[in-house]
Amino acid sequence: MTERTLLLLGAGALLVSAIAFGFTGRYLLAGLITLAALLVFWFMPKHGTAIQKSDGPVPSPSEVKAYRQEHPGTSVSEAVSEPQRGK
Question: Which residue ranges does the record annotate as region Disordered (predicted)?
Fold first, then answer.
């Protein structure tokens, strides 16, 4: 399951429990749980991180290490994608 699916299921479960607490008369608890569910929905990532795919060959770990030594401060994903682009 993806992270987004788990967040949707969790927030949905919070809303169902808030409705159940509302029917049993525990309005404060129902309100707090509803607020928590709304915060989950509000701050949920809208789109996943875009992964850029390259048609080039995947560099070896030693090439990635050499690239990172030549370009300090680059992340591993940048070190993998940059040589594939031919830069």
Answer: 50-87
